[in-house]
Design brief:
This protein has three helices and seven strands. With about 140 residues, it is an alpha+beta fold. It has one domain: RelE-like (YaeB-like fold, 2-Layer Sandwich), CATH 3.30.2310. The strands form two sheets. Strands 3-7-6-5-4 form a five-stranded mixed beta sheet, sandwiched between helices. A two-stranded antiparallel sheet has the order 1-2.
Length: about 140
Amino acid sequence: MPPQDPKDFQMNREKRIVLPARAAISWEGNSLEVLKQWPREIQRDFGMALRNLQQGERPDLAARPMQSIGQGVFELKAADEAAWYRVIYLARIENTIYVLDSFKKKSRKTEKSDLNRARARFSNVKRRLREERTDAKRKSGK
């Protein structure tokens, strides 16, 4: 299903609608390894939600902004009878979605260590993106 928000569409020279390219996913730190340890059904749910995001659609899972970590950061949420599962990601930037952290929790409160890890990875991504832009400007200026 294509995105429904008109700002998600681009027009080409012939004034035809062009759907956004499928975004890449950058797994920061051990976020992918952690997710792979979860039950298959939970892995599938997060996989489908991330695929929707890659295609410019809304995720099937519950999601909420995580302003306490940074602007553009969101949390995907799923649960089973054993635990609550979370994936924290930075929304699409330059055609990439950055998965900052994946963790499981047993209580309603998110551990400070999980939030701090996501904040640190968010800072690293921002720094990397700044460096890439600086390098690109330097190369194009030569």
